[in-house]
Amino acid sequence: MRKLLTFCSLCIFTIVVSQKNNIEKNIKEEHELRQPQDLSVPPPPINIFPAQYSGGNRLFLENVKNNLIKSNFKIADKILKTKIILKIDQKGNVLNISTYGNNTDFNSAVKKAAETTTMDTLWEHAKNKDGTAVIDIVNLPFEFKNN
How confident is the model at residue 74 (pLDDT cuts 50, 70, 90)? Predict the structure, then answer.
């Protein structure tokens, strides 16, 4: 009799716990269904030919590294990393430069170096699948190794 009661209580506990998980999933699904979705908004454009620096993006990163003034930031780590984000218009002009990383001094020094590098240089503009020039955002990881 004791074994039967233990087995029944174990079954009831299992059923109750499994129903709670199903309830949580149903609440999540209902919440997602209630989110407004505007079907008139098209998906983001796909650039088949992304914008790039004349000579390649690696050359751009090398030029940024050469223009980097090392006295503008403190070198605490052996490797400093940041992300350079450039907005390129349809004509190949750089509209905006942003840098994101942990070291703010390093970010501002890299931003100045990128501005110096792109000052008089036109980028190859991005093209969509139809071949028309479009605005593009270029994300480039930048890494500086302290020797």
Answer: low
Q: Where are the beta strands (DSSP E) in the chain?
A: 47-49, 79-88, 94-101, 126-128, 133-134, 136-145
Residues paired with residue 143 on neighbouring β-strands, in sequence order: 81
- Smallest Cα–Cα separation from 60: which of 122, 128, 103? 122
Match 């907005």 to its residue by tokens.
Answer: 87
Rounded Cα–Cα distance for residues 136 and 107 (Å): 22
Task: Give domain 48-145's CATH number out of 3.30.70, 3.40.50, 3.30.1150, 3.90.1200.
Answer: 3.30.1150
State residue 80's pLDDT score: 85
DSSP tally for the chain: helices H, then strands E: 3, 6
